[in-house]
């Protein structure tokens, strides 16, 4: 395993940024090849991928119109009153 | 089905808190969120004629809100320095053999099912608040607004490599924050 890694001259440190980059756009063929090998043999890299995927899924969920995930904070009464007044006047 | 109508007098009661909570995820700081909610309602009031009654009032308001949020992102880029500085260094640690310490683990969550986990999402929202303004901006545009990398680069005049470096570091910061705030508790 370490021999294979050495052949590709990739340490985990080199792999992680590529993993993240691949989430954002299609990476070049040579980079894909460089990424393939460590991913096939490295459990830690796989775990890292799943962590990033979890972050992405959670973030997308936060962005949904009906997301229930957001803390129950409320707009200040002053601002509410200000908006209500404005609507009453202008509508 | 009866056609949807707008009831501006009830907007504050029905949607103000919902929009406010949502805004808190997209922007940093209650003041900015407060302002964005106001701007949204004011804009909605002026553009009532664009409401065709085909969507719900809520979805229509949400559309205006999204629009105003993007406007805000665009205008804030003038004041935002997107150069990568020392303060943005990657916070992940590696040992001498190039392995991440501590080693990444499974977090005991299924990445697909994580979306059902409300508490975990709240931790993420909290952790996002700890990001620097620029990391926050970029992460929101990429992962919540779902903009393509090309679009973000163009919009903010960024080199693609800089965007990837920033996204990578932002994700690592969030990862570390998630681990220290939630996942190690059990």
Basic shape of chain B: globular
Q: SSE order of chain B in H/E notation?
A: HHHEEHHHH
The biggest beta sheet of chain A is recorded as:
none
Cα-atom radius of gyration of chain A: 23 Å
**The first-level CATH class name of the largest domain in chain B:** Mainly Alpha
How would you describe this structure to a colleague?
The complex is a heterodimer of chains A (91) and B (186). Chain A has a domain of 63 residues. Chain A is mainly α. In chain A, helix 2 packs across helix 3 and helix 2 runs parallel beside helix 4. Chain B is mostly helical and 186 residues long. Chain B has two domains: 69 residues, Rna Polymerase Sigma Factor, Chain: A (Orthogonal Bundle); 98 residues, Winged helix-like DNA-binding domain superfamily/Winged helix DNA-binding domain (Arc Repressor Mutant, subunit A). Chain B is 59% helix and 2% strand. Chain B has seven helices and two strands. Chain B has a two-stranded antiparallel ribbon with strand order 1-2. In chain B, helix 5 packs across helix 7. The radius of gyration of chain B is 19 Å and the shape is globular. At the A-B interface, helix 2, helix 4 and helix 5 of A face helix 1, helix 2, helix 3, helix 4 and helix 5 of B.
């Amino acid at each position: 395993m370490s021999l294979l890694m050495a052949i590709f001259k990739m340490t985990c440190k080199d792999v992680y940024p590529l993993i993240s980059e691949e989430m954002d756009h299609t990476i070049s063929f040579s980079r894909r090849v460089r990424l393939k090998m460590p991913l096939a043999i490295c459990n830690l890299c796989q775990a890292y991928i799943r962590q990033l995927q979890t972050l992405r899924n959670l973030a997308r969920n936060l962005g949904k119109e009906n997301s229930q995930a957001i803390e129950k904070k409320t707009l200040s009464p002053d601002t509410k009153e200000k908006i209500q007044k404005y609507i009453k006047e202008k509508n | 089905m009866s056609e949807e109508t707008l009831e501006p007098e009830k907007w504050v009661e029905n949607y103000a808190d919902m929009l406010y909570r949502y805004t808190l995820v997209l922007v940093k700081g209650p003041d900015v969120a407060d302002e964005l909610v106001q701007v949204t309602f004011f804009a909605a009031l002026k553009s009532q004629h664009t409401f065709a009654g085909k969507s719900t009032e809520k979805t229509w308001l949400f559309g205006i809100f999204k629009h105003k949020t993007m406007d805000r992102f665009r205008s804030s880029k003038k004041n935002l320095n997107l150069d990568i500085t020392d303060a943005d260094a990657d916070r992940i640690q590696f040992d001498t053999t190039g392995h991440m310490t501590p080693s990444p683990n499974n977090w005991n969550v299924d990445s697909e099912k994580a979306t059902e986990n409300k508490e975990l999402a709240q931790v993420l929202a909290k952790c996002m608040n700890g990001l620097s303004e620029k990391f926050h901006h970029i992460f929101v545009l990429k992962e919540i607004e779902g903009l393509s990398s090309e679009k973000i680069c163009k919009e903010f005049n960024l080199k693609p490599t800089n965007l990837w470096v920033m996204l990578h570091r932002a994700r690592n910061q969030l990862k570390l924050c998630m681990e220290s705030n939630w996942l190690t508790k059990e």
